[in-house]
Amino acid sequence: MWTIGSLGFTMPWLLLGLVALPILWLLLRAVPPAPIRRRFPGVALLLGLKDDEAETDKTPWWLLLLRMAAIAAAIIAFAGPVLNPEPRVSGSGPLLILFDGGWADARDWPRRIDRATALLEEAQRDGRTVAIVRLSDSPETPAFQTAEAWQGRLGALQPHPWEAGDLAGWAATLPEGAFETFWLSDGLDHPGKAELLAALQARGPVRAFESARPLVGLRPAVFADGVVKLQAVRPVAGGQADLELSARGTDPGGVERELARVPLVFPAGSLEAEAQLSLPPELRNRLQRFEVAGFRSAGAVSLTDDSLKRRKVALIAGSESREGLQLLSPTHYLRQALEPVADLIDGTMADVLLASPDVIVLADVVKLSQSETDGLSDWLDKGGLLVRFAGPKLAASDVSRIEEDPLMPVRLREGGRTVGGAMSWGEPKSLAPFAESSPFHGLDIPADVTVSEQVLAQPDPDLSERTIAALADGTPLVTRKAVGQGQVVLFHITANAEWSTLPLSGLFVQMLERLAISTRPSMPEASDLTGRTWVPDTVLDAFGTAADAGKVAGVPGDDLAKALKDGPHEGLPPGLYTGDDRRVALNVIGPQRVLSPAVWPADVPVEGMAAAHEQSLKGAFLAAALCLLLVDILASLWLTGRMRGAAIASVLVAALLIAPGNAKASEADDPLALRATTGVVLGHVLTGDPRVDDVAQAGLLGLSQKLSERTSIEPDAPLGVDIETDELAFFPFLYWPVTADQPIPSAKAYAALNRYLRTGGMILFDTRDADVAGAGGTTPEGRRLQQIAAQLDVPPLEPIPADHVLTRTFYLLQDFPGRYAGSIWVEASPPDAEQAEGMPFRNLNDGVTPVVIGGNDWAAAWATDDTGLPLYPVGRGFSGERQREISYRFGINLIMHVLTGNYKSDQVHVPALLERLGQ
Amino acid sequence: MTPDEDLRVRAETLGQSLPALLAAADHLAATVILGEHGRRRSGMGDEFWQYRAAHPGDSARMIDWRRSGRSDAHFVREREWQAAQSVVLWVDASRSMEFSGDRGRAPKGDRARLLALALSILLIRAGERVGLAGSDVPPRSGRAQLERLTLALRGAGGEDYGRPDVSGLVAHGRAVFLSDFLGDLAPVEDALARASDRGVRGALVQILDPAEEEFPFDGRTIFESMGGSLRHETLRAGDLRSRYLARLADRKDRLMHLAEASGWHYLCHHTAEGAQSALLWLYRALEPSR
Fold this sequence. Notes:
The complex is a heterodimer. Helix content of chain A is 29%, strand content 20%. Chain A is built from 25 helices and 42 strands. Chain A has a seven-stranded mixed beta sheet with strand order 19-18-20-21-28-27-26, with helices on both faces. A six-stranded mixed beta sheet of chain A has the order 7-6-5-8-9-34. The radius of gyration of chain A is 46 Å and the shape is flat. The longest helix of chain B is centred in the last third of the chain and has 25 residues, at 237-261. Chain B is built from nine helices and nine strands. In chain B, helix 1 packs across helix 5 and helix 4 (108-125) packs across helix 9 (275-285). By secondary structure, chain B is an alpha/beta fold. The model of chain B is unreliable at 18-38 (pLDDT under 50). The radius of gyration of chain B is 23 Å and the shape is elongated. Helix content of chain B is 37%, strand content 17%. Chain B folds into two domains: 3-26 and 84-285, 3-Layer(aba) Sandwich (Rossmann fold), CATH 3.40.50.410; 40-79, no CATH class. Strand 3 (36-39) of chain A pairs parallel with strand 7 (221-224) of chain B, so a sheet runs across the interface.
């Protein structure tokens, strides 16, 4: 590549062609434009006339210049001009391409790949070996291979959702020997970066590359004071940045959608932005993730877990708390423990069950009515958690004594026991460490938690597996039983401090949390997680897209706790981890995370992504050459006097062919739609025979006038409808005069017609042949009608029965003449229509006939000129005029039938009709 | 329909749109000396003019005995002098008349033949005798002559520019020359002189195409005559325009002077114009000079 300023040429040797231009100048200059031969009688008068100027036999200089410019443009175009060519510093030796490969790369990963591809191509040209390394992988010695070998693999390279670990490890694995490094940095500082950079610089020159796109990290959401608080951080404090935060979750239908959106504003000069989101509990419990809108990176996504969820807990105590003795209330400590982390519901059992709580706590409740028991059982089957506390009443009752109560996990022995009291021998018992199978496993047991009184479980065979907490002597303290999808948990002590000191301790709160009765208010502590295995449920990729984790081995709680503190890594990708009933979100950005920008020493050249891009100018130059040549054609024509309309037109056509044509198809329908929808408009199908169309137009005009005179229907002027192109839906009624040579409609037109008929339109087919052929025979129009109607969605037909609603929609009619008086066909009435006793017509209440078929040439009978005078004779004398009147009445009845349906078929009208019929 | 019949039909149409010569007699008034309109004096003719007393010297057979029988004197019945004019047309049939400056315009020769035939129809309808110059179609009257004229007008000459033919001119008759007069003017002068010698008067109709009037050419051009005998090459046709137009005006001027000197009429007619005005002009030009 050879460059002048910001312009480069891929094939600069072609520019040598420019040297030939002066020769071309001389050649072109010597050849004058070719003369035109003209036959002209007036030549006799021209003989002897001399031209004034002698040098006009040369091509004029400006035309030459034009042609020179055209040729020069073509030469330059083929030399491959490139604006802002990327400097191709061809190096030698191996090239190491480093990606940070973390979530911060994901925001512009394709461009990074593009850049790396360009580097690979360059290396391929220069025959260099290349190694590509993601620093987010675990360190290994980079293997230098040919650029071709890397090209196929580069496209499949994806960033990791976690960040690069300690880069010092990479520094140790670097191979010996000199190589050049190109570091595609994600713009963040990583631990050990300085060491790695020093090691790389020891091997050879290092170039870095940083994107100008902003980077944002979203810290996990925190629920406090009734609102969800979110914090975002950015590595560089710039000007004010207005972002938007989107809260996503499932809707009641289970479809993920955006539940809320709040602005997130970085004030100028600030590294942090804060947003608050106040959501009703129903919505808040549905939240699955927060994301900064428009940032496609795992760092801009924060998954939510149980910490935002607030369970509905119903507290029901056996005895009403006595006034003034609040500390003795059976539910006081529960209330204290749960109030900050759960929504508490009070009320009777029946009320509480209606609220479908997540948890129902029964503190020393013994008596449950049958309906309450059934309700609780159903609720348990659906996944409820019933927590019962023992107490004096339970100890004294017969519940679950002989047989295991369905709402109790174990059978109880009579009485209970007291240890360490004033009247007993032993010391109060402390708790045994929690077994591994217990949900409480890993919780520290404070030394001051003692139990002095409890109810005892019967030693049934399954007692040991139902025990999840026991006293130091092995006596079950907490037992659990699964019922349906739910479970019943019994604390063998009271919920207040009467029988033990457990409700006074922090362990009580932790146990409640482990039982998923309460939810932890903030980030889980290591102690909350240890001792249990956490299985990834959903994992995030680097682009912030959540995916099902599939079958992945669980991770120990200790590791998860460490990852929550230090951020995810290779074995622990960000995502949602479940253990028992709890879910913990491991997000890319921790609650204390601060993004620190990468700093490069002065001797490392940093290339930005915002640099001017290469732009090939070949097309522009070629187009310019072509335009100049076109101008040259015009100029030559003008110069030789051949500039004529045809010549100009042909040149313009050529120019138009070159110009990208984007002429839009005009919307032809709109005028028709406007005219057809401003009022009721009767339509007639255009047959292609102008005479028939004129008659139809005049006929519908006459009918429209009569309708306006006599009824409340006041149609506008009728319109001719081309069924191939026009929209039919605007017309309630179509008059279709059938001619023998009418073209069969296209498939598209049939589709439109059938849609029209199905959606309530009516077509009046008129063969205009007076039905002369009689039964069995057909006229040419009749045959054509059969061919046309073959593909139409026409129901079975019958000759119009005497009680059809058409006979009485406006006028009472017996026959339906036009210019001729023949019978007409309408949709057949249902076969089960019965005529009721004493009724003049059958009860045919459904359906407007979609087609009426006849041959009476109604349009001719209706046709009037503009002054309202009939255009065509009907019959003779008075009887003819009478027939015309009846034909108008038929038209009015028909339009009434179209517009009002079977309204007149309603039996309500029977008395009035009977009276008018004179019966 | 052959082109000749077509020409005939069109000529008839053009003639019909003018008042027939007879019907326009009032308009032409007494000065019209053409055709069957009497010359308002006694002479040879069919129509009665006057009775006059017989003079000595009148032969006995000239006496109208029926009139004389009613009185004592002798009367001679005089008839109005009637004489049909002979009109000879010369229509330039040379190649130069085939020129048309525009595809949509008929060539000049077409217009010349149309005018000639339309004039013939008018004249024959008025009873005049019409013929073509040269000996092929001598002047005759009657509609059959129109057929002969039509046939004779069909022929096209081979030379580039036409020269008027005066061989068929009838002494003291009328003549009409239809040409573009773009060729050498010497034959025209000669023909006019000879016609004047024989007492023939008439009209010169110069038929030109608008292209010849405007010279709308530009650029490097080789002009050729229709037959190709003359050619002129120019590099800038546009520059020649003014000089060409000056020469054309000069030519028209000469023709007009020629016509005036010999008592003829001169008209420059363009094919872009309607033929009717030219026909009307011709029709008037054949009236006697006042």
